[in-house]
Design brief:
Layout lengths: L1 E6 L4 E8 L12 E2 L9 E6 L6 H12 L6 E7 L5 H17 L5 E5 L1 H11 L4 E8 L4 E10 L2 E12 H9 L3 E4 L10 E2 L4 H8 L33
Parallel strand pairs: 1-5, 5-6, 7-10, 10-11
Antiparallel strand pairs: 1-2, 2-4, 3-9, 7-8, 8-9
Helix pairs in contact: 3-5
Length: 236
């Protein structure tokens, strides 16, 4: 099965074509992974800088390098963040349009970008307890904790919103801080970005496909709003 992976949640956006070979194990609902090991991606296209309207160009380039046709793609994997909702929404819109154009002959997967970062850290040979941290604005961070070993990683604490003070405390305890932008906020932070090739490998063997309308960005904040009352018509 050929998988097209879209990871637009960070300032480094990427598109990859990955092919599953043989009978891969399912990771549906799992909180562990063998990491990014496996056959190399057939292709990967990476761009950095301001987010433009080049998503289709990146996809065409990735397909061209992989010598694959659009009709050969059986699954689209999308990094759901949390992080840049503009980028994530763009990736979701591309996946939804793709499925609509193929009349639902392509399946969709949404995968946490935090898991993708943990898997990328494993591929980069980081080991030990690490905190994947993503800027949540308002002086807060999205954070998840993983144990990483050479053979893979497992989730210790699921994704939550935390404070800069909490992350500094974890750093003092010897835990590693990794993710987009943490190296500029914490003196021992290490830059690790989610990659589409890694996202594609995480998608191999999964069966928790979702319909297009159920593909949503990961957003942990509670939605607070005040419903506006209808206008009152006062008697004259």
């Amino acid at each position: 099965m050929k998988i097209l992976a879209l990871e637009f949640s960070s300032p480094q956006r990427s598109v990859a074509v990955v092919e599953s070979i043989g009978d891969e194990r399912s990771t549906m609902g799992d909180t562990s992974s063998p990491g990014a090991q496996g056959p190399p991606a057939l292709s990967e296209v990476v761009e950095t800088g301001s987010l433009g309207a080049n998503a289709i160009g990146m996809i065409d380039a990735a397909l061209g390098r992989a010598q694959a046709e659009r009709e050969q793609i059986e699954c689209l994997a999308v990094g759901l963040g949390p992080s840049s909702y503009h980028g994530i929404r763009l990736a979701i819109a591309v996946a939804q349009g793709w499925q609509l154009a193929r009349q639902e002959r392509v399946r969709l997967l949404g995968i946490s970008s935090a898991e993708c970062i943990a898997s990328q850290a494993c591929a980069d040979h980081l080991v030990g307890r690490v905190n994947v941290n993503i800027d949540a604005q308002r002086s807060e961070f999205y954070a998840a904790t993983y144990d990483i070993a050479p053979e893979g990683w497992s989730e210790i604490q699921p994704l939550q919103i935390t404070t800069e003070e909490d992350l500094l405390r974890r750093q003092k305890l010897g835990e590693s801080l990794i993710g987009p932008g943490v190296y500029s906020r914490f003196d021992k932070g290490r830059l690790v970005l989610p990659r589409a090739a890694t996202l594609g490998h995480l998608a191999i063997g999964r069966t928790d496909f979702v319909p297009a309308e159920k593909l949503d960005p990961i957003y942990l904040r509670k939605t607070n709003f005040v419903k506006t009352l209808p206008a009152r018509i006062l008697p004259g």
